Amino acid sequence: MLPILYSYRRCPYAMRARLAIYIADIAVELREISLRDKPTHMLQVSPKGTVPVLVLPNGVIEQSLDIMMWALKQNDPHGWLNADLNKAHALIVENDTNFKRALDCYKYPECYPQLSQIDYRSQGEIFLQQLENLLNQHNYLLKDTASLADMAIFPFVRQFAAVDSAWFASSNYPQLQKWLDTFIHSDLFGGVMKKQPTYFV
Ligand SMILES: N[C@@H](CCC(=O)N[C@@H](CS)C(=O)NCC(=O)O)C(=O)O
User: Fold this and answer.
1) Per the structure, how many domains does the chain have?
2) Most buried pick, 90, 119, 126, 155, via CB within 10 A?
3) What does the alpha-carbon distance between residue 115 and residue 1 come to, in Å, rounded to a whole number?
4) Assigned domain for 67 exists
């Protein structure tokens, strides 16, 4: 039996898991779910109810970063793990906490009326500027080729950019714009964003 990956196409956490599984060339049964009607089996094996979830014959991996590491430790043809992994993890933690919070508020400002949408965008820009500074030092976040950090983070920057693409295109993050564009137009990203029917049951 193939491992089962419960996923949601537009979820950035699920995207990072799919990216690593794709590059590692590991066959999985991909089950695209509806977040409003989650499959019973998924909730049985992982009651927390978030995607991605990877179901293996001998266990369940419930966090996107752990799924990336599981895949890349088996096969890492582009050397995504050949980087300072402490730095990678520090950036990913910043992404998954402060930046993700700012992203949610910027995307849905009506849910967070305490501040304006521009305020939330400014909060997110602290991270964008940090990434821009790194990209001024090398082609990718930690070195001249892509690493775990780029792959775990770009799906979130993509969402941030898409909230107001005209603003992002005119913003003062030229390296970040180029970096994001490279990923969005890559065969790799195209490969993990193919549409497929929703799995219920
Ligand atoms: N820490 C988790 C976060 C995953 C997560 O929050 N996924 C969202 C979708 S982007 C989700 O499944 N939310 C549950 C829901 O909306 O019901 C991970 O890294 O895998």
Assistant:
1) 2
2) 155
3) 49
4) yes
Find out whether 153 and 15 touch, Cβ atoms under 8 Å.
no
Same domain, 47 and 66: yes
Is 6 near ligand 1, meaning CB less than 6 Å away? Answer: no
CB of 147 sitting under 6 A from ligand 1: no
pLDDT per residue of the chain (201 residues) written in tens, 0 to 9 = 999 999 999 999 999 999 999 999 999 999 999 999 999 999 999 999 999 999 999 999 999 999 999 999 999 999 999 999 999 999 999 999 999 999 999 999 999 999 999 999 999 999 999 999 999 999 999 999 999 999 999 999 999 999 999 999 999 999 999 999 999 999 999 999 999 999 988
Ligand 1 atom closest to 49 (CA): 14
Ligand 1 neighbourhood includes 11 CB (under 6 angstroms): yes
198 located within any domain: no
Which residues form the domain of 45? 4-77+188-192
Asked if residues 25 and 78 have their Cβ atoms less than 8 Å apart, the reply is: no
Say how many Å lie between the CA of residue 137 and the centre of ligand 1: 32
Tell me, yes or no, whether 116 lies in a domain: yes
Task: Clarify whether residues 59 and 134 are in a common domain.
Answer: no
DSSP 170: H
Looking at the structure, do residues 73 and 127 belong to the same domain, yes or no? no
CB 13 near ligand 1, within 6 Å: yes
